[in-house]
Specification:
Elements (H helix, E strand, L loop, with lengths): L8 E2 L5 E2 L16 E6 L8 H16 L4 E6 L10 H7 L8 H6 L1 H12 L2 E7 L7 H10 L18 E8 L14 H12 L4 E8 L2 H4 L5 H6 L2 H9 L1
Parallel strand pairs: 3-4, 3-5, 5-6, 6-7
Antiparallel strand pairs: 1-2
C-alpha cells in the first residue's frame, strides 16, 4: 500500500517535505467510525492486556454498532526494526527514491495508512522491564515519519484523533507508589502520541496483573475491576 502524498518538494539535500495531509481527507470515508487496535502481548488468552482490551472493545462496539475495527497484531505479525537501508530511504526525497527504497518504506506506509484512516486508536500492551515491548517500539519507529505524522517543524499532524492506552503491569506504579518513578511505559506512550498530534488520550492501567498469574484473583475478576472506567472512557 502506498501513501497519498501531496505537494512533494525538495527543500535541501536531506531536508524535504511531503506536503500536508489535506488531500487525504478527500479519500477518507467519514460515515463509519474506524478504530485501529494495536495488540502487543504474545501470551494469547493468558494475556491480561488482551483480556482487558477485549472487554474495552466490547464496550466500544456497544456504542458504535456500525463501527469498523482494524487489528494490527504485533505478536502475530512481527515488524522488522529500522535498518540502515530503511534510513537511507527515509532520508531520500520521495521523487528521488529508487524502487528498492520505496520497497523499504512500503510496510511503514501501510502502518501509517492504517493510523491515518482511524478515528480512534487503542494500544494494548504489557509492561516489560518498566517499558513497552520491543515489538511496540518497532511499530512506533515505523509510524513516526517527518512530513506525514510529524511536521518538519516538529508539530504533530494527526490532530483530532482519540487514543486509549490499555496497559497491564505486574506491579503497582501509579501515584503514591514507592516506585512510581518506574511508571515509564504509559508516560512514554503518551509522549509519543502527543508528538504526532494525538492529545486526547485515556489510560486504562491494569496494575498488579501478576496476581492473576499467582492465582490470587481470576482473570474475570481482574478485568471486571476496570469495567467501570472502560465504560466512562468509551462514553466520554
Amino acid at each position: 500500500m502506498r501513501l497519498n502524498y501531496s505537494s512533494i518538494k525538495a527543500a535541501a539535500a536531506v531536508s524535504f517535505t511531503f506536503g500536508t495531509l489535506a488531500d487525504f481527507a478527500d479519500h477518507k470515508e467519514n460515515t463509519v467510525t474506524k478504530l485501529l487496535l494495536v495488540e502487543t502481548s504474545p501470551r494469547g488468552d493468558a494475556s491480561v492486556s488482551r483480556n482487558l482490551t477485549q472487554r474495552y472493545v466490547g464496550e466500544w462496539r456497544d456504542k458504535n454498532p456500525d463501527g469498523r475495527i482494524v487489528v494490527r497484531d504485533l505478536a502475530r505479525d512481527a515488524l522488522p526494526h529500522v535498518t540502515m537501508p530503511w534510513l537511507a530511504a527515509y532520508f531520500t526525497a520521495p521523487f528521488e527514491q529508487t524502487p528498492e527504497m520505496k520497497g523499504q518504506l512500503g510496510l511503514s506506509d501501510e502502518l501509517i495508512q492504517e493510523l491515518l484512516e482511524a478515528d480512534e486508536l487503542i494500544i494494548s500492551t504489557p509492561v516489560y522491564n518498566y517499558n513497552i515491548p520491543a515489538s511496540l517500539k518497532a511499530w512506533i519507529d515505523h509510524i513516526v515519519r517527518k512530513g506525514i505524522t510529524l511536521g518538519m517543524d516538529g508539530s504533530g499532524l494527526l490532530t483530532g484523533k482519540k487514543a486509549t492506552i490499555v496497559i497491564a503491569s505486574g506491579g503497582f506504579y501509579s501515584e503514591g507508589s514507592p516506585v512510581a518513578d518506574r511508571n515509564i511505559a504509559p508516560q512514554y506512550l503518551k509522549l509519543i502520541l502527543n508528538v504526532i498530534g494525538i492529545t486526547d488520550i485515556r489510560v486504562i492501567h491494569g496494575e498488579g496483573a501478576k496476581l492473576v498469574d499467582l492465582g490470587e484473583t481470576t482473570m474475570l475478576e481482574f478485568v471486571e475491576r476496570h469495567a467501570g472506567q472502560m465504560r466512562q472512557v468509551v462514553n466520554a
